[in-house]
Amino acid sequence: MMKKIIGYSIVCLLLISCVSSRKGELSEFTLVEKIAFPIDEKTYYFSKSISSFVDENTGNEYFSFENSEKGQHEILFYEMGSQQLVKRIEIQEVGPNAIGMFGHRVKDLNHIYITSSGQHAISLVNDKGAIMQSYNYTQSDEGKPLSLVYAVSYCHMPLIIDTSLLYLPQRVFGNEMSGADWLSTPLCAIMDTLSFNIKILPLKYPVLFKQKSPITSSADVGYSFDFDGQNFIYSFMKSDSIIVTSDHIQSRSYISKSRYLNQVKCIPYSGDDIITCQRSMCEQEMYWHFMYDKYRDVYYRFALFACDVDARTDVMELDGVRQEFSVMVLGRDFKVIKEVRFPKDRYLPKMCFIGKKGLYISENNPANPDFDENKLVFSCFR
């Protein structure tokens, strides 16, 4: 009888140990709070452009949500403390002052920069949605064509304005690239918002792959981008390294490898079948957001794991949601402090933002058993 009791105890301990090891990593992040912003029937639960900002005059913190995924054309503002909607700004969709809204950056409730879908223009609007200033950037002062700029959180690409200088990250989507082409392709351009002069900065892309291939997907050549007040950091989706520069002339490279990703590599896709392309993206592991947390003076780098995909999988939805991911925390020396793995099918890593209290990650994953399409639910980790 004693042997049976001991054996049963050992089995119980092993089971507890297994459960603890699966949940233990997430406990390295402290769950600070869970917040829920109510939404109406006209608001979709997902957005590619969200952020938080602090009003310099009042010190109040707000959450902004671009509601444009399902036919609306507006930005919603919630007060973080009360989690209540305090302002709705409608952006003109048709007419002479129409803006093809796709991405935004909030300076305050009366100064909002909007990047335009399919247009080389950035509009500064007021709290009524009226355009106060437009910045056009079709080409540089030397006549070099520039790529479109989108201020999105879907893959963290904030619109960076340092004093009067507006930074314009350059993408290669739609180009045909080979090894030599990378070395002559700039990472960024810059506009002086006072003089409207535009120049291309000297720093170039790293060689992401050597064979000549058309770029029909941004998954291989895309990057996340942020500014910490001194350094600009470029984190490529298919590279273990990050590139850090303060002047876009000299740069340094740091290894920032996830312990959960085996080997990220560029797999240029030359077809034009969107479903096949999305399936391929879901089946690949890659890096995603790179974000600077000014409140805690650390950086976050997200690693997306390869998804389980079969013939019945809706790859268009899965690519936006993903299944499993981890978050790496880096110090000011760009060394990894820790990496935390999140449970499968609970969070939506492509919808997150940084606030005063910590890193907020959406729980609006349709596979989450607690999913509620009538609320924007976020867990805050620190």
3D structure, described in words:
- With 382 residues, this protein is mainly beta.
- It is 11% helix and 37% strand.
- The protein contains four helices and 26 strands.
- It has helices at 2-24, 179-182, 274-282, 315-321, and strands at residues 31-38, 50-54, 61-67, 74-79, 84-90, 101-108, 111-116, 121-125, 131-136, 161-162, 165-169, 176-177, 188-192, 198-200, 213-214, 223-227, 232-236, 241-245, 252-255, 286-293, 298-304, 325-330, 336-342, 348-354, 359-362, 375-381.
- Strands 1-26-25-24 form a four-stranded antiparallel sheet, with no helix packed on it. The chain has a four-stranded antiparallel sheet with strand order 2-3-4-5, with no helix packed on it. The protein has a four-stranded antiparallel sheet with strand order 6-7-8-9, with no helix packed on it.
- A hairpin with a 4-residue loop joins strand 4 (74-79) and strand 5.
- Helix 3 (274-282) packs across helix 4 (315-321).
- It is globular, with a radius of gyration of 22 Å.
- The N and C termini lie far apart (48 Å).
- The model is unreliable at 1-24 (pLDDT under 50).
Quick tags:
disordered N terminus; 382 residues; 11% helix; mainly beta; four-stranded antiparallel beta sheet
